[in-house]
Amino acid sequence: MKTHRIKVYDRFIELVKKIYELRYRAEYLAWEGITNYRANVKPIVNKTMALDDKSLKLLTSKEMALCLKKLNNKNVHESLTPEKQTNVRIITNRYDRLSRLPTALVRFMRKASVIAYEKWEEAYNASDFNIFKPALRKIFDLSVEASRLLRDKNIYDGQLDKNEAGCTTKFLDPLFNDLKNKLLHLVKRIESHSIPTPVIKSNFDIKVQERLSREVLKVMGFNFSRGRLDSAKAAYCCGSMYDLRIVNAYNEGDLSSVFGALHEGGHALHEQGFKEKHFCTPMADCNSSALLESQARIYENMVGRSEEFWSYYYPRIKQLFPFLDKISISDFFMMVNKVQRSLIRGEADEVTYNLHVIMRYELEKELFSGKITVDELREVWNDKMNKYLGLTPKNDASGVLQDSHWTEDFGYFSNYALADICAAQLTEQLEKDIPNMFTLISHGNLMPLKLWLNANVHENGSMYNANELVVKLTGKPLNTDSLINYLRRKYSKIYGIRL
Ligand SMILES: [Zn+2]
Fold first, then answer.
1. 19-26: which pairs have CB atoms within 8 A and are 24 or more residues apart?
2. How far is the CA of 435 from the centre of ligand 1 (A)?
3. pLDDT of 50-70, one tens digit each?
4. How many Cα neighbours within 13 Å face the side chain of 470?
5. Burial, 18: exposed, middle or buried (Cβ in 10 Å; 0-12, 13-18, 19+)?
6. Ligand 1 mean position to 283 CA, how many Å?
7. Coil, strand or helix at 231
8. Distance from the CA of 74 to the center of ligand 1, in angstroms?
9. Average pLDDT of the chain to the nearest whole number
10. How many angstroms is it from 289 CA to the middle of ligand 1?
11. How far is the CA of 325 from the centre of ligand 1 (A)?
12. I need a surface site. Which of 3, 97, 302, 367 has the fewest CB within 10 A?
């Protein structure tokens, strides 16, 4: 009996590994299109769609169904190790989800998404929401159709659950209302104490910025023998723990690429931190979008925007860009932490950022409840922007068209706020476990931080979602206390007020 069980599990893992191999092949192909400006994107899109098709066939195959049925038998399941149980659970969830959707619909959704991205790009460049509207309506209708097939009650919950298992509006509503009210109060208080910051007019050479990104990644502990750094229009990260591809974006006018390197580096360390023996299985993957983003935000914000990080790094930056000699470290620190109402989520500071996110969450919820339509999205967007951030977009590109997320689906934005909440709770725990962590960071030693994340977060793979892991490590569920305390402490010091 036992040998039979082992054989079923082994066969199951063989199938799972094939699915992951197809996924990585598709990711590397997409990477080629993104990093090679001259690449012809059409054949790449066709090839990645063919790989996705193969992977879908394997996942929903009769053999997979049979393996899952046997492995989910109560006695068999209980005899598996927690790691093996996790692999079975995650693949079962994916199987359940995808096998309930007709293959034709899945294919149609992918095609609609490719068209929507093209339309979004055209609309963004022309700053005209009307160009994107029909394609967006299609994505919305297909998402509703898929959600109806997957869930009976709340359609929007189906969208949330896709990215963060078990996540519902019932869980998010009180959490985000609490966060929104506290953030609105903080922004008002900080604004009443604004202090002038210097403006840098010189250009930051792109080649030097690339060198700097490489250095930052090395300090973080990124293993370059198993990964690489390239450039493109937008920063991102893809691939497996053995061949990780970080892509960073560079602007001559600022040093935002440093934060891009820290953010994507956080994702990369997560991937490189999985246990090798689990390669190509959910145990060497993260199934929680909130947890995934939290790893990037710890490095980008909690570490990368800290006084200690810059006390170590600013002298080096001044060596690379001598014109910064005129700017004191305290002025520079102020510049990278300035709280300012702005139109673009991707450029927002730590305090206003989640107001942008919550606004999108509310818009999506209203869209799925039928309170508003795709046609009304621009007007409602502008109203909400005014209500929460006191600003009106001057055009669609700086308003409703600024993010490309809706070319794929809905229900992702909320994870950015969950990630910040999670990152703050994890950092609080980190400081309890390594009390001198920030002193070490001020000496350029980021290794204890990486090792803690490896042991407490990364090595768990897909075993826990963000809430489960935070409960396990801190004893408390996801809540706004740590994030708000962190922001109060930090900005009270920067602005010289008691928040
Ligand atoms: Zn990210």
1. 19/55, 19/58, 19/59, 20/240, 20/280, 20/281, 20/285, 21/280, 22/51, 22/52, 22/54, 22/55, 22/58, 23/51, 23/55, 24/239, 24/240, 24/243, 25/51, 26/51, 26/52, 26/55
2. 27
3. 999 999 999 999 999 999 999
4. 25
5. middle
6. 20
7. strand
8. 37
9. 94
10. 9
11. 32
12. 3
Side chain identity at residue 387, one-letter code: K
Spatial separation of the C-alpha atoms in residues 156 and 168, rounded to whole Å: 8
Give me the percent of the chain exceeding a pLDDT of 90: 88
Say what the pLDDT of residue 413 is: 97
State the average pLDDT over residues 308-335.
Answer: 94
How much distance in Å is there from the Cα of 267 to the middle of ligand 1?
Answer: 7
Residue 472 confidence (pLDDT) above 60: yes
Instruction: Give the tens place of pLDDT for each residue, 163-203.
Output: 898 899 999 999 999 999 999 999 999 998 878 888 888 89
CA of 297 from ligand 1 middle (Å) equals: 8
Distance 151 CA to ligand 1 centre (A): 28
Q: Give one DSSP letter per residue of 128-192, joined into a string.
A: -HHHHHHHHHHHHHHHHHHHHHH-SS-HHHHHHHHHSTT--HHHHHHHHHHHHHHHHHHHHHHHT
Average pLDDT over residues 268-289: 98
Distance between Cα 348 and ligand 1 center (Å): 15
For residue 169, the CA-to-ligand 1 centroid distance in Å is: 22
Quote the ligand 1 centre to 275 CA distance (angstroms). 21
Count of CA atoms in the C-beta half-sphere (13 A) of 119: 21
CA distance 155 to 145: 9
Dist. CA 296 → ligand 1 center (Å): 6
User: Which pLDDT band holds residue 4 (cuts at 50, 70, 90)?
Assistant: low
Q: How far apart are CA 51 and CA 24, in angstroms?
A: 10
Cα gap 140→319, rounded to integer Å: 50
Residue found under tokens 């293959």: 103
Assigned token pair, 291: 């947890």
Asked whether the predicted pLDDT for residue 484 surpasses 90, the reply is: yes
Whose CA is closest to 339, among 193, 218, 441? 193
